[in-house]
Design a protein that fits this description.
globular, 32% helix, alpha+beta, 8-stranded antiparallel sheet
Length: 246
């Protein structure tokens, strides 16, 4: 094994403080995140503080899953999800395929006219650069809130379709998402090879050695530690994120 193995399972971990920005539809006693889906990665929430819910749209229709400390909820690619904050909601977010969400795996539920125009989508989803070490920039917060509100308007339309059509109401969103990310796939394959595929291959190799009575791979054992990235928490889809370079 190399000196710096992937984080267990090729996953990533971040600490999320859900936005306290009120939403136009009144969801959440305090605030709401930005609805979106992931095209490739599964996501899990481990609730560590506060309370709220995650709203989901999937082939099973609309659902709301209550979140309290100790609760774990996870979902697969294609599930539209939106966190709502009823007070001080904090979660540890575990993502499969570390690196892909940061490389564009998430697609926001913007209105159809934005989703079907790649240039408009890029403009609507981008945030201004945030200083990695300086104080909070209100311009970034304003942009993140505008992005959230635009995604909520598309989400309202999407939820109405799902209420009427069931899971079939997500078909147009899925088609648009596939078109938006298609050009990123070569980059994503390299990320997966270096992360989750590498981690799996090392496990398969270790099992083969153990099955034959060997344990030579244990001689390469190593320990890694990593502090959180410095500076203010960055603005994510559903809240402020403390992240680690894993």
């Amino acid at each position: 094994m190399s000196a710096r193995p992937p984080f267990p399972g090729g996953t990533s971990v971040s600490r999320l403080t859900v936005y306290d920005w009120p939403a136009a539809d009144g969801a959440g006693l305090v605030g709401s995140g930005t609805p979106h889906l992931h095209t490739t990665s599964s996501e899990g929430y481990v609730v560590i503080g506060g309370e709220g819910a995650v709203q989901t749209l999937s082939q099973d229709g609309y659902a709301e899953h209550r979140l309290i400390p100790g609760k774990v909820v996870w979902f697969t690619p294609g599930v539209v999800h939106r966190l709502v904050n009823d007070g001080d909601l904090e979660v540890l977010v575990v993502m499969s395929n570390a690196g892909l969400p940061e490389a564009g795996d998430a697609v926001l539920t913007f209105p159809r006219e934005v989703l079907t125009d790649p240039e408009r989508y890029r403009e609507a989803s981008a945030l201004p650069a945030q200083s990695p070490a300086g104080p909070d920039d209100p311009h970034v917060a304003d942009a993140a809130r505008r992005r959230r509100d635009l995604a909520l308007s598309g989400y309202a339309e999407l939820r109405a379709r799902v209420d009427t059509e069931g899971g079939a109401g997500l078909a147009d969103l899925y088609a648009a998402a596939g078109r938006l990310v298609a050009g990123r796939v070569p980059e994503w394959r390299a990320i997966v090879r270096a992360g989750v595929e590498r981690s799996t291959a090392e496990t398969v190799s270790a099992l083969a050695s153990l099955a034959s009575g060997g344990a030579g791979h244990l001689a390469g054992a190593t320990v890694v530690e990593q502090a959180a990235r410095p500076g203010p928490a960055r603005y994510g889809m559903c809240g402020r994120l403390q992240t680690w370079q894993l």
